[in-house]
Design a protein that fits this description.
The protein is of the alpha+beta class. It has 2 domains: 5-110, Immunoglobulin-like; 121-176, no CATH class. It has 4 helices and 6 strands, in the order E-H-H-E-E-E-H-E-E-H. The protein has a 6-stranded antiparallel sheet with strand order 1-2-3-4-6-5, with helices on one face. Strand 2 (33-36) and strand 3 form a beta hairpin. The protein is elongated, with a radius of gyration of 20 Å.
Amino acid sequence: MKKFERIDGSEHYKKQVEEKNTRKYYEANPTEEVWANDKYVVHVRKDLEAMGQLMTHLSIRNTENTAIRDWRDMQYIKNELVGDENEGFELFPKESRLVDTANQFHIWVFQSTEGGVPIGFNERLVTDLCDHPQHKHKLITKGAKQRPFESDRKPHDNYKCFKKLVDAQKEFYNEK
């Protein structure tokens, strides 16, 4: 996936706004930014107040306008457009607040790197080696599958995290 570029000032985008009859929307939301790459278009609204904090809203669609998306891509988008250490979430609302009119996905991201969402995992554990032919024999439990990371997005701590997982399993199962 390519890096994002801001497109809302481009002539091509201005033409699309006219064709889609959305100029009035953008006039009413002058601070909204639009970013795109080869796979996604993201509308970014910053400085929204929620839960006593400033948030950034990412409204994401793929370039084909289909319902297909990839979790890793969503993490990449959040990291590139807001920050690696900013936490965000996707809300599954009660039906009375549901908005579902287009194949778009929404992530709300805390602008501060302090705090975040008080649920989830406390430690990083990211690896694609659990099913790797050279490494899977090291695990006690079998069957975990993870597709390989793209070479330009492979985690810097891929093997270190795998070793941490192996060590945790050995300790849990009292094996040395």
